[in-house]
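Figure-free illustration: sequence to structure, shown twice.
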Amino acid sequence: MQIILGVTGGVAAYKSAELARLLVNLGHRVRCILTEAGARFITPLTLTSLTGEPCYGANPDQGEWRAKPSIEHVELARWAEVVAVVPATADILGKAANGLANDLLSTVLLATRAPVLWAPAMNTGMWEHPAVQANLARLRSFGHAVVDPGEGFLACGEEGSGKLAEVAVIAEAIQMHGAPKQQTLSGRRVLITAGPTQEDLDPVRTLTNRSTGTMGIELARAFRNAGARVQLVLGGDGPAPWGVETTRVRSAQQMLEACLARWADAEGLVAAAAVADQKPERQSPEKVKKGDEPETLVLLRTPDILAQLAAARRSDQWVIGFAAESQNHLKNATAKLNKKGLDAVLVNDVQNGRGFGAQANTLTPITAQGAHPPLGPLPKDRLALAVVNWWAQRLEARPD
């Protein structure tokens, strides 16, 4: 992805260096535009060294306007696949909201047709001022995205809202808005389940499984980046993706209820959660103490979330399930596909702990036509993208 990173004059400008480096490490090309005020906080040499690209705008070695001043802003505007302003001061927000352009960054913002993202950072009083909020509302009406600041200690010594959002969050938002959209998925409502469920034995002990939820979370990101409107029902402690409406749950029953409440409005389901299949017959309200006698634990089945959602689906809804198998992978996954009436099952081999955590994984899609070529082995973020691309092609080929 080709990213223009605008850096304006705020104390948080030093974080733009970290952001630039992170984006480059993620495989993107980054060109920075530094305003005159921004150059008082961070140097062009720093940004050029981190990105391997020229730093434009306020540059003491070349001046604010370099050769071909009449077209430089147009060339950069055309080059960009996304423009992000980090940090965004009240000044640049006001300029852009009102069509003012008196330096390179503000003219690029007017000339570009690429998605624009703002990450504001300023004093709490400034952030909450009606003029700033009105400018933000106007920028949003242009289709621009805003990564709202967080709360914390500010450079001025006060504590409150206005602190620049976390660099990793801003990077994720940039990737989301700059990613190419899938026509067959753009605007589609997709429900995704992710993470493990947990069934409490008492206030301390729980029944669960080894899932971290990483695959489901990455699928939520990939569908979101493809243009889908994603709702994520998430078990476990994994971080929710930015820009995805997320509902946190703990037990299988809570996950079922959350899914049933959202299923009617969705067009598709990706059931990547690792649901605990059993729960204790009795849950103790107090911690169970150790005893000398043998203990017996009676287990009951938890609700089959995927089966219930598949049974309740309309003819225009599609359902993708997952199967973690340690033996007879294709046979067992095919049986799951047929028994639950799914459109596809993605099966992975979890023998000897494979597939859990951050390690690379392989998924084999199975449909009514049989097994498809495996996807992977790939890191889970790239594997999720491969799944989305595979399914988008399947949807495109389906008759209406």
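We now fold a second protein in the same way, so the two outputs can be compared directly.
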Amino acid sequence: MNQYSEKAILYLSKHFRKKITLEEIAKVAGVSPFHFHRKFVEENNCTPQNYLENIRMQHASHLIKIFPNWSLIDVAFESGYSSPGIFSRAFKKYYGITPSQHKLNSDLEPENIKLEKTKPIQIQYLTKKNIVVKKVSLIEKRLNQGYQKIINSTSSNQILFGVFMDVPFHVPLEKCRYFIGLETSLSEKDNTVLTIPAGYYTTMIIQGNFDHLKEKLVAKNNQIINKGYVIDSLIGYEKINANKKIPFDYRKTKREILMKIKRA
């Protein structure tokens, strides 16, 4: 992915709730609007505005499935739309069904998942962390290469962070916005920085592929709800302890998934 697209996608991912112009994104990418638009379409097979719409629609889809009791107006505003009417028309045009119909098609309840209803949730308060990031593909070979490149660039073992801007079982892996990086002293205003916000988090340890991640997340989400909490952010974070002496293998590596929560 060229640097123009990478900077633009990160910017859109951080600011998709507000009105964004082509000139604004091109300025972030550091090129003229005409040049940026042409390069972005060549690489992503869609315009920047189309890409922004994709982000908003995928965000809305997941909100509807995770928070079925939310009102349409809450989903609309949280997804970057100025009114429920505009949102509903955009949603039906994009998915071919209404938001209400979409709610009935939830696939977040796979069968044969055993819920640990009595197990207490471990909650901890985490301070804000700024992460200097780079977008990588969730296709396993490219994912391993991306992490290995960061590991090789450091002088010692480091804690690495992954940021899921999309949910890998709602969005095809090759289309997911996933960023990896290291903690930084740079400000969150920097165009290469994503912020893990301060707040209360619960965690789980995961090892395996994305099918295993889906099962664990669904079970964990039900456990969170049963204890009187809800997930407070649809952005997912994972923490990985890197070992320079061992070639990186994402599937075999134990990752700590961080989920921001709040009282229901």
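Summary for the second example: The longest helix spans residues 48-66.
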